[in-house]
Amino acid sequence: MPSERAPVSLKIAAGAGLLFLHLPILLIFIYAFTTEDKSYQWPPPGLTLKWFAVTWGRPDVWAALRLSLQVAAISTAVALVLGTLCAAAVSRAHFFGRETVSLLVILPIALPGVVTGIALRSAFHIAEIPFSFWTIVLGHATFCVVVVYNNAVARFRRTSGSLIEASMDLGADSFQTLRHVILPNIATALLAGGMLAFALSFDEVIVTTFTAGQQQTLPIWMLEELVRPRQRPVTNVVAMVVVLVTLLPILGAYYLTRGTDAVAGQGK
Amino acid sequence: MSAVTFDDVSRHFGAVRAVDAVSLSIAEGEFFAMLGPSGSGKTTCLRLIAGFERPSAGQIRLFGAPVQDQPPYRRPVNTVFQDYALFPHLNVRDNVAYGLMIAGQAKTDRHRDADAALEMVRLTGYGDRKPSALSGGQRQRVALARALVMKPRVLLLDEPLGALDLKLREQMQDELKSLQRQLGITFIFVTHDQSEALSMADRVAVFNAGQIAQTGTPEDIYFRPETAFVADFVGSSNILPARLVHRFTGRDCPAALRPEALRIVDTGPLLARVTAMSFLGTATRVVLDADSIRLTALLPKDAPRPHIGETVTLDWDASDLHLMAGA
Amino acid sequence: MRALSDTLWRRPRLTIALLLAPPLIWLGVVYLGALAALLVQSFFSIDHFTGQINRTFTLATYAELFRASNFDIILRTVVMAALVTLASAVIAFPIAYYAARYARGRWKALFYLGVMMPLWSSYLVKVYSWKLILAREGILTWGAAKLHLTWLLDGWLALPVVGGNSLSVSATGTFIVFVYVWLPYMILPVQAALERVPPSMLEASGDLGAKPFQTLRHVLLPLAMPGVVAGSIFTFSLTLGDYIIPGIIGSSRRFIGQAVYEQQGVAGNTPLAAAFAMVPILIMAAYLWAAKKKGAFDAL
């Protein structure tokens, strides 16, 4: 094919753009080893592993991490159920209000997080629900549904409707069809959606500040540190760990859906 | 007893009447074809028999028992899907054994039966492959084996040969035909290809706009079309309008005249101008214009050939002129 | 089970209803209910003497939005969102174009991950990394010194509005971080739009005598526009509602998100917070309506 070589200027612009996206994150990895603990000095005056040990011994970091993992796990579970049901209904039939259902699912992340956050907070206030672990989960699950939904809908669309008919034709009722045909065919999409939902919940801060009350998830812990830096080296280490922890589900989801349907990344 | 009976069955999708008050009866052991253009309702009829659609009105009976309230998994029919619908997560053997597994048959038994079914469609040794590793023709055989292993009393085939190339299609036509004779069960297949329907089926129903235009043997359909639609769809029949037919017979209705029935003679009832000609090997196809009516004649290869632009005289045997109901 | 399955088969509408009930109850009741609560609150007002919320219908709270200090916040936020969207589109285009047109096989996957990973990386960590970069003692100041460009940096910081003590407390800093954080949301839809342009169309343009720049201007950009509009929905909406980035990296001049946060938290003026929160919703509703007319959703 002709003209398959990109112009140099385009290469430079694209490369520079990608560097702009990645260098700041890589910088975190260097700062985690710096010996400087009072400022963000560059270049680091020296390198040390000391802060990893210090962070390891911090009960507040552990507590925040534990809470974040628990919230993410339960929110993901709820989102998996709700998102899959919704995707199944939408892809199953053309019914009145299909578009509305899709819009409703997307709304919690299409609107700014601060809107979702304050809306939930007002609702809790009016209904006199005290802040707790469950109010955090309620908020997270609401915006995690869309990630599962996007992945599941894409897979349902690719899975031929005649597979379900074939299964029923061969004697399987709805539940047997669900178990032996539908679930095996959408399993990887659900796994990918679940991983992304987990990463999304694990990282969320804006809605959480409105729904958390006194509890500290890991992002809230970090936010405190950002607003009032007290333990810069510990924050550096936590930031690096967070990057690594969120990286795994993203890569996992990518490999699970590779070559089939794009990971529904829009609208994180 | 008839295997499948439709009594005034309709299926509407909103304002669209996909199937409109269709009645038909298909005998046990019959090879029955549903023929028609896309959107004529033939596939919906098949899906009504399988239970993937429910009738908006009317009654469907299988072997005398009403089934319109029975889901697909309770009906003694099985389907070969147009896109084959093989389960991508199962290998060929497990695909074929799927229905037996659902029925609760033990693993060794169902694998033995599946292998026997694969042998019947000449795919011995393919059991461990994934469907994605098979060719189109092979997938089609797997779909066939998967349906047949259930020992259905009626086998439904939705455009079974549509995705195959010409040579494979002819081979599968013969195989399906002999398989049906050997098993003695009812085959109902849907197709838009008239030559396929006419060459394979014992009886054909021609569909048009949600209704059956004509049901009959291939000979009936081909030589004695009852409506202009059937005549036009089934073959390249010439359709003579009522005013022309009136001139020759005194009857006021359109008529069908097959191209091979037209002869070029020295004196005859109809004058026509030759507008095009093509050589087909065993015959010559001549396109004629008679008083603005387009006619096609098929001349045997030893007959004298006219020239383009020449005006010729046409004749035919009165018995070949097939009078039809209104257009 | 079979009997239940039979019932479901006979009543497909019931099946759909059962599938939809849990998600619709959750989203419809919890989420839409919360939004409705927000809307209702915005029509209440606060008694400035007692601090009590007066639960009678009034438009007074909305009128407060037009007070100079509040209206400045809205204007500032919208201008920032527009600038961020523009800059994101400019930076995103070469990446998206290269990925869509030239990257193949392994490179394509690499580009895809190269956009997805920053998109999904922790938001706070991304903001934090810029706090490190933009700090007075950070890498940017160091880099400027090495390149003998300190005069340029200082000159920029001395400017009114965009400048400040250091980049990390300037509007410029806020702008850079916004662009950085939302950029992947622009790249993906633009790339999706460009993937649909057949290369033969560009060759046809060249064949008809267009210079590369003319092809870019008259063929490529118009075709990329739906993608840009789709991407801008994210960059615009996310910028409008963010309160963390301008709080951590920026001057003391506030944005809508911060106003919402402070009014409902520190000030305890929930009605005004709710009214502020309605602003991005209304702007986005108008924006989405316009985008839908342009067919931007096909590129999502």
TrEMBL record, chain A:
Major location (coarse): membrane
Keywords: Cell membrane, Membrane, Transmembrane, Transmembrane helix, Transport
GO biological process, one term: transmembrane transport
A Pfam cross-reference name: BPD_transp_1
Transmembrane segments: 12-33, 67-89, 101-119, 131-149, 182-202, 237-256
Family membership: Belongs to the binding-protein-dependent transport system permease family. CysTW subfamily.
UniProt name for this protein: ABC transporter permease subunit
Lineage of producing organism: Bacteria, Pseudomonadati, Pseudomonadota, Alphaproteobacteria, Rhodobacterales
Automatic annotation (TrEMBL), chain B:
Domain of life the protein comes from: Bacteria
GO cellular component: ATP-binding cassette (ABC) transporter complex
GO MF, one annotated term: ATP binding
Keyword S-adenosyl-L-methionine: no
Gene3D superfamilies xref list: 2.40.50.100, P-loop containing nucleotide triphosphate hydrolases (3.40.50.300)
PANTHER family given in the database record: SPERMIDINE/PUTRESCINE IMPORT ATP-BINDING PROTEIN POTA (PTHR42781), SPERMIDINE_PUTRESCINE IMPORT ATP-BINDING PROTEIN POTA (PTHR42781:SF4)
Protein's recorded name: ATP-binding cassette domain-containing protein
Annotated source species: Pseudooceanicola spongiae
UniProtKB/TrEMBL annotation, chain C:
Transmembrane segments: 16-40, 73-97, 109-128, 156-183, 219-245, 272-290
Membrane topology, record value: Multi-pass membrane protein
A family per Pfam: BPD_transp_1
Swiss-Prot/TrEMBL keywords: Cell membrane, Membrane, Transmembrane, Transmembrane helix, Transport
Record localization: Cell membrane
GO CC field: plasma membrane
SUPFAM superfamilies xrefs: MetI-like (SSF161098)
Gene Ontology BP terms: transmembrane transport
Domain ABC transmembrane type-1 as annotated: residue spans: 74-291
Matching PROSITE patterns: ABC_TM1 (PS50928)
Family classification: Belongs to the binding-protein-dependent transport system permease family. CysTW subfamily.
Protein's name in the database: ABC transporter permease subunit
